[in-house]
Fold:
Amino acid sequence: MPPRSVVRPRRLALAPGESRTIRTVVAIARDAIQTMTAANRPMFVPVVATNILYATAGDDAQTARAWVVGIERVDSAKLAPFWLDAPARMFTTVAARPTVQSSNAEGTGQQKPHA
Structure:
């Protein structure tokens, strides 16, 4: 099972139509990385997920999203993976792309929290 981290920011109230940005940093120890292999080369493709629980008009609800993280490429819209057989280095072109999101039967994308 992959390492999991839970960030529990303070509760905040939003007025209708208001938005806020919550910034965070995601990190993983190299020995905790679950690798994949392509062309006999070990690679890492991080996925960052969020699960937001909220109440609206007295009704509890939730929404979740996930993003794939990788290296921007000039020759493709796809992100490149982090190759683990290359020397350690810093990347200035790290980016995230949302994964394809499915919605519930009502088509709202919002679901009741699991009990």
